[in-house]
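User: Sequence in, structure out. Go.
Assistant: Echoing your sequence, followed by the structure tokens.
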Amino acid sequence: MRRRLLAVAAVAAVLLAGAHAPAASADTAFDVLVFSKTAGFRHDSIPAGITAVQQLGAANGFTVTATEDANAFTTANLAQYEAVVFLSTTGDVLNATQQTAFESYIRGGGGYVGIHAAADTEYDWPFYGELMGAWFSSHPAIQQVTMKVEDRTHPATAHLGATWVRTDELYNYRTNPRSSAHVLATLDESTYSGGTMGADHPFVWCKTVQSGRSFYTGGGHTQESYADAAFRSHLLGAIRYAGGKAAADCSVGSTPPTGRIEAESFTSQSGVQIVGDGAAHGGNRVGYIDNGDWVGYSSVNVSGKTGFTARVASGGSGGTIQVRSGSQTGPVLGTLTVVNTGGYGNFVDVTIPITAGSGSLFLVFNGTGGGGLFDVDDFALTGSTPPATNLALNKTATADSQCAATEGPAKAVNGTVNGGNADKWCSLGASKWWRVDLGASQSVGRIVVRHAGAGGENTAFNTRDFDLQTSVDGNTWSTVAQVRGNTANVTTSTFGPVQARYLRINVIAPTNNSDAAARIYEFEAFAS
């Protein structure tokens, strides 16, 4: 986070020269709190950021209160604001009581906008990680970048083109937020030096947290950012969304037709890009497909499948999709031909039979001609019943504690079971909870918990007795199974099924204190 040496007076002069975003005259008045407390690095762009938000408020019908006093985070005080902006906050800025008030505010319907170093804040607070979507990891020197705008329907990006070229400090993040957030724009790492996230590098995203709204932009390090008209419009759209004045779909992809899999849900790829498209199911498609590109889906198994259907569009030369198993060079199960459909917005379904295979699905793209060959929106495999899908795999997990920095809640849903190493969630003491957000309400009828022997209080690796609970809103919980006196390393509970978005483990305190911590190596959820 390199400090920019630009005179504040010079920037203020530019701000006052009229770099204002268009007014949203239809808005009713609302109130915004700008919070810029720092407990680590302090950005010298904070004053320019405050001024910019104040000017946006004056021009667009919302009041702005700027503070660095964490005592503003009380239930009563937060209730008067429609949105709270964390402007390049750093470090641990709220105490436990203030955190509780803010979490209640968000879950109850409040709005949050995180700007730049808001991602470098509150690393030890699980809720903030859920709210943010991803924490800061590193950054290269300030430089120009080309951003790819995936969704141009959100009020924060509606004024932009398909790409956005700007100069700023470009964060790398510890995790990719795409699995829990709706990504609006990504960095094209081929246009600058120092990116570490590869072909999918989200930089702007939004999400919902129960009834609350969350928005994050990685921009805003430089003082010049706040004098830039496009960036100011970006902030205005973010604030209007967070304040509930502008509607936007920030769900993690809308549900495709029954049995369909979104093409952009790949877990590995080469050469392709995710493109925002209002005509595509879920609002995105896989595009920029050239000869030899491929995508892989580790959670999609081709075993027993006899048919493949893809929703495709082409304004170019078209080409073929090879359906392969195991890897991008694995056996070819079938080849689907894509012709020019009259444009990239004109989607059609194409179906082919495929031969029997095993392992994960890979799609390999081939064709001739310059530019993109075609785009893929979603697809379906038909045939016998596939292996059960683990609904909790790589979903957002939170907990009220963890034993060590390497033993966070996400380790319990990462698909890896390594026994007595750090690939587990470990609670910091007894009577703790862990939970996972499935992303949407789903039918759940079976839960598998892989743990260290439960119920045996004389062992050092003891999961204790626990309750399994479900919830549709994250507030009201129902106990579907009680595990008591179990000394096995795997517990399978079958129930219902019930509709649930959130699943929770409540650890029961032991009757002695030989080892109060719980260890969960993997948590799996299935429809039945």
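User: And one key feature?
Assistant: The chain is about 10% helix and 35% strand.
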